[in-house]
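Methods — Computational structure assignment.
A single polypeptide chain was analysed. Its primary sequence is given first, followed by the predicted tertiary structure written as C-alpha coordinates.
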Amino acid sequence: MASFAWANLNPTNYIGGASFRPEQDIPDLSGKVVLVTGGNAGLGKETIRQILKHSPQKVFLAARSEEKAANAIAELKSSTPDASITWLPLDLSSTKSVQNAAEKFKSEASRLDILILNAGVMSLPPGETDLGHEIQLGTNHTGHFLLTKLLLPTLLRTAEEEPNSDVRIISLSSVGHNLAPSFDTILDQSKLKKCNTHARYGASKAANILFAAELARRYPSLTAVSLHPGLIATDLYGPIGKQNPIAAVGAKVLGAVGTQVEQGAWNQLWAAVGAKRGELVNGAYYVPVGNLKTYNRYANSEEMGKALWEWTEAELRRGGAKL
Protein backbone atom coordinates (compact mmCIF):
# COMPACT_ATOMS: atom_id res chain seq x y z
CA MET A 1 0.00 0.00 0.00
CA ALA A 2 2.98 2.34 0.44
CA SER A 3 3.45 2.67 -3.32
CA PHE A 4 -0.25 3.43 -3.75
CA ALA A 5 -0.20 6.11 -1.05
CA TRP A 6 2.93 7.71 -2.52
CA ALA A 7 1.51 7.62 -6.05
CA ASN A 8 -1.60 9.40 -4.77
CA LEU A 9 0.24 12.02 -2.73
CA ASN A 10 3.34 12.53 -4.89
CA PRO A 11 3.15 16.21 -5.87
CA THR A 12 4.93 15.63 -9.19
CA ASN A 13 1.77 13.84 -10.35
CA TYR A 14 -0.13 17.11 -10.25
CA ILE A 15 2.34 19.72 -11.48
CA GLY A 16 1.30 21.31 -14.75
CA GLY A 17 -1.78 20.36 -16.68
CA ALA A 18 -4.68 22.47 -17.86
CA SER A 19 -6.64 25.31 -16.34
CA PHE A 20 -10.26 24.16 -16.24
CA ARG A 21 -13.55 25.36 -14.80
CA PRO A 22 -16.66 23.45 -15.91
CA GLU A 23 -19.02 26.42 -16.02
CA GLN A 24 -16.90 28.40 -18.44
CA ASP A 25 -14.86 25.76 -20.26
CA ILE A 26 -17.51 23.20 -21.26
CA PRO A 27 -19.04 24.27 -24.59
CA ASP A 28 -22.64 24.02 -25.66
CA LEU A 29 -23.52 20.33 -25.99
CA SER A 30 -26.72 20.67 -27.99
CA GLY A 31 -27.42 17.56 -30.03
CA LYS A 32 -24.93 15.43 -28.09
CA VAL A 33 -25.85 12.08 -26.54
CA VAL A 34 -23.91 11.08 -23.42
CA LEU A 35 -23.70 7.80 -21.49
CA VAL A 36 -22.13 7.67 -18.01
CA THR A 37 -21.72 4.39 -16.15
CA GLY A 38 -22.06 4.57 -12.38
CA GLY A 39 -23.97 7.80 -12.77
CA ASN A 40 -26.10 7.44 -9.66
CA ALA A 41 -23.47 8.61 -7.14
CA GLY A 42 -20.07 10.18 -6.61
CA LEU A 43 -18.02 11.28 -9.59
CA GLY A 44 -20.53 9.88 -12.07
CA LYS A 45 -23.43 11.89 -10.72
CA GLU A 46 -21.32 15.04 -10.46
CA THR A 47 -20.14 14.54 -14.05
CA ILE A 48 -23.73 14.33 -15.24
CA ARG A 49 -24.68 17.36 -13.14
CA GLN A 50 -22.08 19.51 -14.87
CA ILE A 51 -22.83 18.15 -18.35
CA LEU A 52 -26.55 18.88 -17.97
CA LYS A 53 -25.77 22.58 -17.51
CA HIS A 54 -24.65 22.68 -21.15
CA SER A 55 -27.80 21.37 -22.84
CA PRO A 56 -26.99 17.90 -24.21
CA GLN A 57 -29.70 16.23 -26.25
CA LYS A 58 -29.89 13.23 -23.90
CA VAL A 59 -27.97 11.66 -21.03
CA PHE A 60 -28.11 7.98 -20.12
CA LEU A 61 -27.37 7.27 -16.46
CA ALA A 62 -26.22 3.66 -16.22
CA ALA A 63 -26.50 2.01 -12.80
CA ARG A 64 -27.53 -1.25 -11.16
CA SER A 65 -30.15 0.00 -8.70
CA GLU A 66 -33.41 1.44 -10.02
CA GLU A 67 -34.09 3.13 -6.70
CA LYS A 68 -30.68 4.81 -6.53
CA ALA A 69 -30.89 5.81 -10.17
CA ALA A 70 -34.37 7.30 -9.67
CA ASN A 71 -33.19 9.28 -6.65
CA ALA A 72 -30.18 10.58 -8.56
CA ILE A 73 -32.28 11.56 -11.56
CA ALA A 74 -34.78 13.38 -9.34
CA GLU A 75 -31.95 15.30 -7.69
CA LEU A 76 -30.32 16.18 -11.02
CA LYS A 77 -33.59 17.29 -12.58
CA SER A 78 -34.33 19.54 -9.59
CA SER A 79 -31.65 21.91 -10.86
CA THR A 80 -32.13 21.22 -14.59
CA PRO A 81 -35.84 20.36 -14.92
CA ASP A 82 -35.85 20.31 -18.72
CA ALA A 83 -32.99 17.83 -18.95
CA SER A 84 -33.52 14.50 -20.69
CA ILE A 85 -32.07 11.77 -18.43
CA THR A 86 -32.78 8.08 -18.82
CA TRP A 87 -31.85 5.27 -16.44
CA LEU A 88 -29.98 2.48 -18.20
CA PRO A 89 -30.05 -0.70 -16.07
CA LEU A 90 -26.48 -1.99 -15.93
CA ASP A 91 -24.66 -4.53 -13.80
CA LEU A 92 -21.13 -4.70 -15.15
CA SER A 93 -20.48 -8.05 -13.48
CA SER A 94 -23.23 -9.68 -15.56
CA THR A 95 -22.70 -10.38 -19.26
CA LYS A 96 -26.44 -10.57 -19.83
CA SER A 97 -27.04 -7.24 -18.09
CA VAL A 98 -24.38 -5.52 -20.21
CA GLN A 99 -25.88 -6.96 -23.40
CA ASN A 100 -29.37 -5.86 -22.35
CA ALA A 101 -28.10 -2.36 -21.55
CA ALA A 102 -26.50 -2.04 -24.98
CA GLU A 103 -29.70 -3.17 -26.69
CA LYS A 104 -31.81 -0.75 -24.68
CA PHE A 105 -29.47 2.11 -25.51
CA LYS A 106 -29.49 1.32 -29.22
CA SER A 107 -33.29 1.16 -29.22
CA GLU A 108 -33.50 4.67 -27.78
CA ALA A 109 -30.61 6.54 -29.41
CA SER A 110 -29.14 6.64 -32.89
CA ARG A 111 -25.89 8.35 -31.91
CA LEU A 112 -23.40 8.36 -29.03
CA ASP A 113 -20.97 11.23 -28.65
CA ILE A 114 -19.55 10.77 -25.16
CA LEU A 115 -19.09 7.44 -23.34
CA ILE A 116 -17.71 7.83 -19.82
CA LEU A 117 -16.70 4.51 -18.27
CA ASN A 118 -16.91 5.82 -14.73
CA ALA A 119 -18.34 2.94 -12.67
CA GLY A 120 -16.01 0.88 -10.56
CA VAL A 121 -15.48 -1.21 -7.45
CA MET A 122 -12.52 -1.21 -5.11
CA SER A 123 -10.98 -3.36 -2.38
CA LEU A 124 -13.63 -6.04 -2.51
CA PRO A 125 -13.32 -9.42 -0.81
CA PRO A 126 -12.73 -12.42 -3.08
CA GLY A 127 -15.46 -12.92 -5.65
CA GLU A 128 -16.03 -13.43 -9.33
CA THR A 129 -18.32 -12.44 -12.18
CA ASP A 130 -20.54 -14.74 -14.21
CA LEU A 131 -17.57 -15.31 -16.54
CA GLY A 132 -15.46 -16.48 -13.63
CA HIS A 133 -13.31 -13.35 -13.75
CA GLU A 134 -11.98 -11.88 -10.51
CA ILE A 135 -14.72 -9.48 -9.39
CA GLN A 136 -12.75 -6.23 -9.63
CA LEU A 137 -11.18 -6.99 -13.02
CA GLY A 138 -14.47 -8.39 -14.30
CA THR A 139 -16.46 -5.34 -13.22
CA ASN A 140 -14.00 -2.54 -13.89
CA HIS A 141 -12.54 -3.92 -17.12
CA THR A 142 -14.42 -6.82 -18.70
CA GLY A 143 -17.90 -5.33 -18.26
CA HIS A 144 -16.82 -1.98 -19.67
CA PHE A 145 -14.97 -3.69 -22.53
CA LEU A 146 -18.13 -5.57 -23.52
CA LEU A 147 -20.34 -2.50 -23.25
CA THR A 148 -17.98 -0.48 -25.43
CA LYS A 149 -17.66 -3.27 -28.01
CA LEU A 150 -21.44 -3.56 -28.30
CA LEU A 151 -21.78 0.21 -28.70
CA LEU A 152 -18.91 0.50 -31.21
CA PRO A 153 -21.18 0.54 -34.30
CA THR A 154 -23.06 3.52 -32.87
CA LEU A 155 -19.86 5.26 -31.77
CA LEU A 156 -18.21 4.76 -35.16
CA ARG A 157 -21.30 5.83 -37.08
CA THR A 158 -21.48 9.01 -35.02
CA ALA A 159 -17.79 9.73 -35.54
CA GLU A 160 -17.75 9.02 -39.26
CA GLU A 161 -21.18 10.16 -40.44
CA GLU A 162 -22.42 12.93 -38.15
CA PRO A 163 -21.28 16.45 -39.12
CA ASN A 164 -18.76 18.09 -36.76
CA SER A 165 -18.68 15.02 -34.55
CA ASP A 166 -16.10 14.57 -31.81
CA VAL A 167 -16.66 11.15 -30.25
CA ARG A 168 -14.82 10.42 -27.02
CA ILE A 169 -14.52 7.39 -24.71
CA ILE A 170 -13.20 8.13 -21.25
CA SER A 171 -11.90 5.22 -19.15
CA LEU A 172 -11.51 5.95 -15.44
CA SER A 173 -8.38 4.36 -14.12
CA SER A 174 -6.37 5.28 -11.02
CA VAL A 175 -2.83 5.61 -9.74
CA GLY A 176 -3.87 2.30 -8.20
CA HIS A 177 -2.50 0.77 -11.39
CA ASN A 178 0.84 0.93 -9.55
CA LEU A 179 -0.44 -1.92 -7.37
CA ALA A 180 -0.99 -4.27 -10.30
CA PRO A 181 0.76 -7.64 -10.35
CA SER A 182 2.63 -8.87 -13.42
CA PHE A 183 0.78 -8.74 -16.72
CA ASP A 184 0.84 -12.53 -16.94
CA THR A 185 -0.96 -12.67 -13.60
CA ILE A 186 -3.63 -10.26 -14.82
CA LEU A 187 -4.44 -12.67 -17.64
CA ASP A 188 -4.35 -15.76 -15.43
CA GLN A 189 -7.50 -15.63 -13.33
CA SER A 190 -6.46 -18.47 -11.03
CA LYS A 191 -3.29 -16.56 -10.13
CA LEU A 192 -5.05 -13.19 -9.90
CA LYS A 193 -7.66 -14.50 -7.48
CA LYS A 194 -4.86 -15.52 -5.10
CA CYS A 195 -3.54 -11.94 -4.94
CA ASN A 196 -4.55 -9.54 -2.19
CA THR A 197 -7.46 -7.20 -2.87
CA HIS A 198 -5.23 -4.18 -3.57
CA ALA A 199 -3.24 -6.03 -6.23
CA ARG A 200 -6.49 -7.24 -7.77
CA TYR A 201 -7.77 -3.66 -7.86
CA GLY A 202 -4.49 -2.53 -9.41
CA ALA A 203 -4.90 -5.17 -12.12
CA SER A 204 -8.29 -3.73 -13.06
CA LYS A 205 -6.92 -0.18 -13.19
CA ALA A 206 -3.97 -1.23 -15.35
CA ALA A 207 -6.47 -2.91 -17.65
CA ASN A 208 -8.47 0.33 -17.91
CA ILE A 209 -5.38 2.11 -19.26
CA LEU A 210 -4.45 -0.71 -21.61
CA PHE A 211 -8.00 -0.85 -22.98
CA ALA A 212 -8.25 2.86 -23.77
CA ALA A 213 -4.87 2.87 -25.48
CA GLU A 214 -5.67 -0.18 -27.61
CA LEU A 215 -9.12 1.20 -28.46
CA ALA A 216 -7.45 4.35 -29.78
CA ARG A 217 -5.03 2.30 -31.89
CA ARG A 218 -7.75 0.14 -33.42
CA TYR A 219 -10.31 2.89 -34.05
CA PRO A 220 -8.51 6.19 -34.74
CA SER A 221 -11.75 7.97 -35.71
CA LEU A 222 -12.62 7.78 -32.00
CA THR A 223 -10.77 9.56 -29.19
CA ALA A 224 -10.15 7.25 -26.24
CA VAL A 225 -8.15 8.19 -23.14
CA SER A 226 -7.77 6.94 -19.59
CA LEU A 227 -7.29 9.03 -16.48
CA HIS A 228 -6.79 9.21 -12.75
CA PRO A 229 -9.47 11.40 -11.16
CA GLY A 230 -7.27 12.39 -8.22
CA LEU A 231 -7.31 11.73 -4.51
CA ILE A 232 -11.07 11.94 -4.11
CA ALA A 233 -13.12 11.63 -0.92
CA THR A 234 -15.83 9.25 -2.18
CA ASP A 235 -17.62 6.15 -0.85
CA LEU A 236 -15.35 4.00 -3.03
CA TYR A 237 -12.76 3.93 -0.25
CA GLY A 238 -15.24 2.67 2.35
CA PRO A 239 -14.31 -1.03 2.09
CA ILE A 240 -10.64 -0.22 2.78
CA GLY A 241 -11.43 1.20 6.18
CA LYS A 242 -13.23 -1.97 7.21
CA GLN A 243 -10.22 -4.21 6.65
CA ASN A 244 -7.82 -3.08 9.38
CA PRO A 245 -7.23 -0.21 11.83
CA ILE A 246 -4.37 1.31 9.83
CA ALA A 247 -6.48 1.41 6.69
CA ALA A 248 -9.32 2.95 8.68
CA VAL A 249 -7.04 5.79 9.77
CA GLY A 250 -5.96 6.24 6.15
CA ALA A 251 -9.56 6.48 5.01
CA LYS A 252 -10.19 9.18 7.63
CA VAL A 253 -7.15 11.11 6.47
CA LEU A 254 -8.40 10.85 2.90
CA GLY A 255 -11.71 12.33 3.98
CA ALA A 256 -9.85 15.25 5.51
CA VAL A 257 -7.34 16.00 2.75
CA GLY A 258 -8.87 14.49 -0.37
CA THR A 259 -10.42 16.56 -3.11
CA GLN A 260 -14.17 16.78 -2.79
CA VAL A 261 -16.38 15.18 -5.41
CA GLU A 262 -17.28 18.45 -7.16
CA GLN A 263 -13.69 19.16 -8.13
CA GLY A 264 -12.82 15.48 -8.34
CA ALA A 265 -14.91 15.16 -11.49
CA TRP A 266 -12.96 17.86 -13.29
CA ASN A 267 -10.39 15.60 -14.97
CA GLN A 268 -13.00 13.40 -16.60
CA LEU A 269 -15.12 16.41 -17.49
CA TRP A 270 -12.09 18.06 -19.07
CA ALA A 271 -11.30 14.94 -21.09
CA ALA A 272 -14.90 14.23 -22.09
CA VAL A 273 -16.20 17.67 -22.97
CA GLY A 274 -13.81 20.41 -21.84
CA ALA A 275 -10.66 19.88 -23.86
CA LYS A 276 -10.84 21.26 -27.36
CA ARG A 277 -10.70 18.84 -30.24
CA GLY A 278 -7.09 17.98 -30.93
CA GLU A 279 -5.89 18.81 -27.41
CA LEU A 280 -6.20 15.21 -26.28
CA VAL A 281 -3.49 12.74 -27.19
CA ASN A 282 -5.39 9.70 -28.38
CA GLY A 283 -4.80 6.66 -26.19
CA ALA A 284 -3.00 8.61 -23.48
CA TYR A 285 -3.28 8.57 -19.68
CA TYR A 286 -3.92 11.78 -17.71
CA VAL A 287 -3.80 12.88 -14.09
CA PRO A 288 -5.68 15.99 -12.83
CA VAL A 289 -6.33 18.16 -14.59
CA GLY A 290 -5.34 17.44 -18.17
CA ASN A 291 -1.80 16.47 -17.15
CA LEU A 292 -0.43 14.04 -19.73
CA LYS A 293 1.69 11.22 -18.29
CA THR A 294 3.84 10.59 -21.35
CA TYR A 295 5.73 7.59 -20.05
CA ASN A 296 2.94 5.47 -18.58
CA ARG A 297 4.00 1.93 -19.41
CA TYR A 298 0.48 0.61 -19.89
CA ALA A 299 -0.59 3.40 -22.25
CA ASN A 300 2.58 2.91 -24.28
CA SER A 301 2.67 -0.89 -24.53
CA GLU A 302 1.20 -2.05 -27.82
CA GLU A 303 2.12 -5.63 -26.91
CA MET A 304 0.18 -5.66 -23.63
CA GLY A 305 -2.72 -3.71 -25.12
CA LYS A 306 -3.13 -6.16 -27.99
CA ALA A 307 -2.79 -9.18 -25.70
CA LEU A 308 -5.39 -7.90 -23.22
CA TRP A 309 -7.84 -7.06 -26.02
CA GLU A 310 -7.55 -10.49 -27.62
CA TRP A 311 -7.74 -12.27 -24.25
CA THR A 312 -10.86 -10.33 -23.24
CA GLU A 313 -12.60 -11.03 -26.55
CA ALA A 314 -11.80 -14.74 -26.25
CA GLU A 315 -13.08 -14.83 -22.67
CA LEU A 316 -16.34 -13.12 -23.61
CA ARG A 317 -16.89 -15.46 -26.55
CA ARG A 318 -16.18 -18.42 -24.26
CA GLY A 319 -18.94 -17.08 -22.02
CA GLY A 320 -21.41 -16.84 -24.89
CA ALA A 321 -21.28 -13.11 -25.61
CA LYS A 322 -21.92 -12.10 -29.19
CA LEU A 323 -19.34 -9.47 -30.13
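Note: The radius of gyration is 18 Å.
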